[in-house]
Amino acid sequence: MIETGGDRGEVVLRVMPRLADINANGHIFGGWVLSQMDIAGGIVAHRLAQGPVATVAIESMKFITPILLGDIVSVYAREERRGRTSIAIRIDVVATRGIAQQQIELTSGVYTFVALDANHRPRPLPQEGAV
Ligand SMILES: CC(C)(COP(=O)(O)OP(=O)(O)OC[C@H]1O[C@@H](n2cnc3c(N)ncnc32)[C@H](O)[C@@H]1OP(=O)(O)O)[C@@H](O)C(=O)NCCC(=O)NCCS
């Protein structure tokens, strides 16, 4: 069953950063969260494309609030637009923080994935509604 988060789409990943993911400020590295977003977007894009995809672009990234050790990080994804061979996935990252389980917007971005054929070249997407 796909767990949904309303307008944010489905929760694709729920993960806790580790000590090794901390930067000099004591916050979590931006690269760590970019990686989690790429993984989550890739899972959704692979399903929609019904096969291999590659990340071709990351647009409109916004780092809203620092991620802290102990945060439970949820990565939401939803299809934003689709072209002939590419799909743009909006990805929102939210922390559940502390005993009060406060929900905090962390990061948001749009990742574009291209469906690939056996030669790693762009492949037309399946018809919408086929999945
Ligand atoms: C993905 C890849 C095969 C695309 O090849 P390409 O020759 O650029 O392909 P095209 O120019 O035909 O573009 C393919 C699609 O990507 C889209 N695209 C290309 N560059 C883009 C960009 N900067 N932003 C948004 N979309 C882009 C095109 O609009 C097109 O979409 P459409 O068919 O829906 O209209 C090639 O760029 C590649 O292999 N890149 C490396 C991918 C990679 O290693 N990613 C990281 C690890 S997954």
UniProtKB/TrEMBL annotation:
Keywords linked to the UniProt accession: Hydrolase
InterPro entries noted in UniProt: Cytosol_ACT, HOTDOG_ACOT, HotDog_dom_sf, Thioestr_dom
Domain of life: Bacteria
Hydrolase as UniProt keyword: yes
Gene3D superfamilies: Hotdog Thioesterase
Pfam families listed in its UniProt record: 4HBT
Protein known as: Acyl-CoA thioesterase
Organism the protein comes from: Sphingobium naphthae
